[in-house]
Design a protein that fits this description.
By secondary structure, the chain is α/β, with parallel strands linked by helices. The chain has 2 domains: 2-34 and 273-451, Tetratricopeptide repeat domain (Serine Threonine Protein Phosphatase 5, Tetratricopeptide repeat, Alpha Horseshoe); 65-260, Collagenase (Catalytic Domain), CATH 3.40.390.10. Helices cover 50% and strands 7% of the residues. It contains 17 helices and 6 strands. A 6-stranded mixed sheet has the order 1-5-6-4-2-3. Helix 10 (312-324) runs antiparallel to helix 11 and helix 12 packs antiparallel against helix 13. The longest helix has 18 residues, at 411-428. It is globular and about 65 Å long.
């Protein structure tokens, strides 16, 4: 399983992105210390258990390629996690926080060991370029049957690292990039450790889960923790077939999630055509021309419309089209974002998706001289970004808010908000260079900056 590379966010297309480097007059500020998140306020799953059971079966008995799995596999007994020396310093506290959540929320007996103590799961950080040489489409990934990068290189073409060939899980290795932002390392930890422990599939139809390649959710949600708790329930023993799991799940979920025992939602539209997935993955994939990306995003929108979808898949296709058309056709980009937002605001499960769209709409409003509208959009969406613990999204929102406040002649408030944004930006974007580049990119959106 792998976490795919995300499409690069470029709000500055409204001003200058994609042409010459942005030359802005953003205020020169010393960068404050990095900000970090406390324990998240997790929202319990809101969908009925019958629907969650269907999601579980699709996640646990299928792979992203569409291949069916004959049996469910999991670790038995206590699970120990080891980190190979040399990992970035920010990994340790984020891993500790995640393991604490897995014990408390998912009921999994999992702890970290030190030194060369035996471990079922090994985490190794490598230069991004090393990962890309072997798995070009991945930001990070997890494989079974090995305990080091050297082992993986030796066995990567054999059944030893084939999830479908497993009858139980004994060892697994997670490979993370060492030279990216702290947030990206944390996001990889959440997704890859969850899949090392449990389901191997991702579903684009899930609105409230990390088990979705749209990457809107970057830390494990209440839904994800329920799936993992069910996965390690005593009844869900290693080696269950799909039919056996389906027979046991209603009782398991009734015990673990009594609030979900209500009528409705017998099935989720889990089946997504391969043509749509291929279009989305090409639009977001590496080594693809911009024209091809735009074509594939438009194709994903067309497939979704022809299928009659009004769920997160149409919203995600529109979101991709909006981002990719910013420099080419701003009017189409705006229309795409507005339609995506109408989908996301229709459900309480898609607040973080709406926050991503709102950031782009706020950038449009700021660039068009409507600072008050930009401010309103950011203030409305910022709580969802904060709850989702997405520091990169929060920092970008606060930078837009600061520019809006400056445009409204509120400089003291703007400076305070801008300083706040930089603390989150250090976690979300990493290097000082990346932080200042994002600050300048967003500062260039304001009409007065463009004139200067």
């Amino acid at each position: 399983m792998l976490r795919k590379l995300a499409l690069t966010l470029c709000l500055g297309a409204l001003a200058a992105c994609g042409t010459a480097p942005v030359q802005s007059s953003a205020p020169a500020l010393d960068l404050p210390p990095m900000k970090r998140f406390a324990a998240p306020a997790v929202t319990a799953p809101q969908r009925p258990n019958a629907q969650i059971a269907n999601d579980f079966l699709s996640l646990a008995f299928e792979m992203e390629s569409g291949r069916r799995l004959d049996m469910m596999t999991r670790f038995e007994g206590p699970i120990r996690v080891r980190v190979v020396p040399g990992a970035p310093s920010t990994l340790a506290p984020d891993l500790a926080a995640l393991l604490h959540r897995l014990r408390r929320e998912a009921g999994i007996n999992i702890t970290q060991v030190q030194g060369d103590e035996p471990a079922q799961i090994t985490i190794q950080a490598l230069p991004h370029a090393s990962i890309q040489r072997l798995v070009p489409q991945a930001a990070c990934f997890v494989v079974p049957g090995v305990s080091s990068w050297t082992d993986y290189q030796r066995h990567r073409r054999g059944d030893r690292v084939n999830w479908a060939a497993l009858t139980r899980r004994d060892t697994a290795a997670i490979f993370l990039p060492s030279d990216v932002s702290p947030q990206e390392i944390r996001d990889c930890l959440h997704e890859e450790l969850a899949q090392a422990l449990g389901p191997l599939n991702d579903l684009y139809s899930l609105p409230d889960s990390v088990f979705n390649d749209d990457n809107f959710h970057t830390v494990l949600t209440g839904f994800d923790m329920l799936i993992l708790r069910a996965y390690y329930a005593p009844e869900m023993t290693n080696g269950l077939t799909r039919d056996q799991a389906a027979a046991r799940l209603p009782r398991v979920l009734a015990r673990l999630n009594p609030r979900g025992q209500r009528a409705g939602g017998g099935s989720t539209p889990n089946t997504t055509p391969r043509a749509w997935i291929d279009a989305i993955e090409t639009a977001y994939g590496p080594n693809t021309s911009n024209s091809r990306r735009r074509f594939e995003a438009a194709r994903a929108v067309s497939i979704a419309r022809n299928a009659g979808w009004q769920d997160t898949r149409l919203g995600f296709a529109l979101f991709a089209q909006g981002r990719l058309m910013l420099a080419q056709d701003p009017a189409l980009a705006l229309a795409s974002f507005l339609e995506a937002r109408s989908i996301y605001t229709a459900s309480s499960l898609t607040r973080v998706q709406d926050a991503h769209v709102s950031l782009h709409l706020a950038a449009f409003a700021l660039s068009g001289g409507h600072a008050d509208k930009a401010l309103s959009l950011i203030n409305s969406a910022l709580p969802a970004a904060t709850q989702a613990q997405n520091a990169a999204l929060m920092a970008s929102m606060l930078m837009v808010k600061a520019e809006a406040l400056d445009a409204m002649n509120r400089p003291a408030e703007a400076r305070a908000v801008r300083l706040d944004s930089l603390g989150w930006a250090r976690y979300g974007f990493g290097s000082d260079k990346e932080v200042r580049a994002r600050l300048n990119e967003i500062a260039a959106l304001a009409p007065r900056r463009q004139q200067q």
